[in-house]
User: Fold these one by one.
Assistant:
Number 1:
Amino acid sequence: METISNSQEENLNVKEEPRDPTSQASDTLLPQDVLCDSCMDSPSKALKSCLTCLVSYCEAHLRPHLENAKFQNHRLVDPLHDIDSRACEVHQLPLERFCLMDGCCVCLDCESQEHKGHTTATVEEARTQIETELEKTQVEISQGTLETEKAIGKLQSNNDLIKSSVQEVCVIVEQQFTRLQTAVEEAKKGVVEVLEGEQRQALRQAEGIQAHLEQRNTELAKTLAQINKLCRHKSDVNFLQEYSEWRKAEADVCLPSVYINRMDHLTSYVQVVTDATQELCDLILSCYREKLSGICRSGTKSQMPDHSSLPDPETPEDFLKYTRTLTFDPDTTHHFLRVKEDNRKLINTSPWQHSYPNHPDRFEYWRQAMTSESLYLGRHYIEVELSGEGAHVGVTYKSIDRKGEESASCITGNDFSWCIGRSSRGFSVWHAGVETLFEASDITKIGLYVDFQRGSVSFYDVTGPMRLLHKYRGDFIEPLYVTAWLSKKDNVVSLVHIK
């Protein structure tokens, strides 16, 4: 509201600057000019508005207010376009007072009747008081903005630090796995050396046996030649005499027994290496997996502020303390979905598509839409109305794939989404592709409660008396966004505006 000057000062100011009434009509009127309400034949530009009469006057028709003592108490201000709105619709009197209890402008009759006993003030005093409060709010918001900008700057610096730190760790990890590979190569080399030693020993044994056999073969060939020569004697006497001599030096003609090492024990090496390899692989994988997951769990929890000292809400009034007002983000809405009622209502209009512009955040395959606002740190409660078999609602991470056709791109099919929905079998809750069905068919309104620090997502039936349907536990690493999936025509999901 414009500052109201004292009526006498206004009168003096006007009298000090008299104008020719004929020149007023000749002035070119602009769209932003306020017209005199008393000029009937030709419109004239208003010079002042009277908050008492609730009428605007040109210089000529303003004279009674300036010269007649009866109008000295009227309040004159610069011309106002909306002066009609400053009158009480019931009593047609100026809105001179402000009810601090009901937060509305009232006239004197309203103050003495409908607002009797309420704390009131003049509109000037109320504005001064409210402006003082707004200045404090502006300071708080400005401080909050600065703190938010600082936090964003810290996050950006932290992102750079994360990247550089991860690169440094990757170098160390590469070194350690290289070391592990070196150890594996050394173990492999040792096993190969043992096998090569076995091979050399077996080959030396075979070579010795072969040399012995070749020597025996030479000896046997020599004995055979002697026998052949002996048999060629024609004289019986000579044959017998030489045979007697040969018998005295008769060579061993028996073949020696030969042991051929088949190295059946090599299968033991295979078994040992296979068993040891399997044991080491299992040990390495389980060791890395357990120790790394332990670090991830402790690291995530250490970064979360602890508010676990607060008692869990129990009554509907307790839950309403954490009410959040959310709206669907049109840039995420699938082409078969339409948002209405200030982006709080989502409708499946299949087979009619909507010509939304391309956007990287828009869901292309699954008929889903995500809210603009996130749920992060602290406790959050919203209520949602579901209509039709195929209407689902839940929470998920912003990083969910918007373009994929796989089940992981739907809020029912991944391990970072928790949702509830209606089907022909009744109501089900979903997480990581696992459906939990419970008998319920008359549910139309769902209460969704998220306790971020404690890692819980709870679904309540609030169609009638509030009752818990299902509760999930998890470790949240990202802010959560309420997301709806409408799989069939005419499915509706509405975010309830709780007053």
Number 2:
Amino acid sequence: MGQGVLEINDCGLRVFIDTTEVLESPGIAVIEPGRIHIGTAAQMRARSHPTQVNNQFWRRLSLESLKSTNQRCRHHADLAYCHLQEISEHCDLPEELVLAVPGNFTREQLALLLGIIKESNMNVVGLVDSASAAIGDLAPAGLQMHVELQLHQTLVSRISVDNQATVKSSESVADAGLCHFQEAWARVFTDAFVMQCRFDPLHSAESEQQLYDLMPQWVSRAMSQGEVLAELDDRTAKISLRQLQDATAPILSRVRAMIENLADSGSVSFISHRWAEIPGGLQIAQRMHLLSRDSTAQSIKNRWKELRSPDSALRLVSSVRAAPESEISLHLEAPSEAVATHLLYGHRALAAQQPLFVFWHEDKFQVTPTPPEHPAATVTNHAGRLALRVDAGIRLMLNGEEIAAPVNLNAGDKIGIADRHDVITAISVERYET
């Protein structure tokens, strides 16, 4: 069936025939004494069989011994082999595959992976770094970033682009993987069910599994509608997009900090399609391009002769031919508004490093860090972003529109009360160093 790509990412190994995705299989295994469930089948059992789960075998690919009574599971490499076998049984593999691997694989892991491949029925004819392959057709000259979400971490790669797109380094953001986002969302949904329905989804393994099975569609609906009515076991709880964003703000803040630390002033961050499914994921960098699902497969197709090894001795290609400048048409995501840092009222500007309270006193607006008896609104700082929450039954206005739900504040936003002229302005105070 011609040519294709196998992309290694423990969020989901993906198989492409030409540039068409035909399978995605998460890097999860449930190990029973006489059987190994792997991929999607394991994902559907993982919460109901927590003591039998292994979702580390790609990240920790090695011959490290595992404590298991299953003879097919001596070490992590055995599970990786089982995963590749499972993939080959669930789709018609192309005759030739190029393997796209993440930049955090060590030399030892790559050697072990190639040994596993030789024992499988996959015909791998090329090996390429995922980051350089993903942006080879898209990146302008300069130092660019590639930001990939993995199951247990985020991988930020620095890529130098001139005639070639060459990986210079890859840095991991620990505890910033898909599973950490999922755990944070699960706490939000669980708390909502407990508070609103007096029902704890984590009281049994079965209901916890249902929670995790349904959560992706709940998060997706919250992102498109601003809130979601989550239904589980005939119970309904309302969760806002803001709650989900707040829960994962510390994770996103660490990813953002890593990108800012590694990037140059003109760098573009090429972020994988998975970030579009994360609330706040499209705000992790100032200059950013969202990659399509098939960007890596498309780039490999365009460079097949360059990447295909002439013999069985595969070598890792970490530098691919870059597209000519004349062929690059790059769409950058709309830059985010300037983030507010202070509240300005009259001649006073208050830094919002701690909660600030807005209230009405003696026919005037007041802003104070001391909680008043009857606040109209509270402004809090979440990972560097200011959020405004209405606290009382006052018709609070933001930029002339009445608000009720929490909102993020950008520089220039004006907070007021209906039929009053006084306003508090959110501003951004920048510090310049000489």
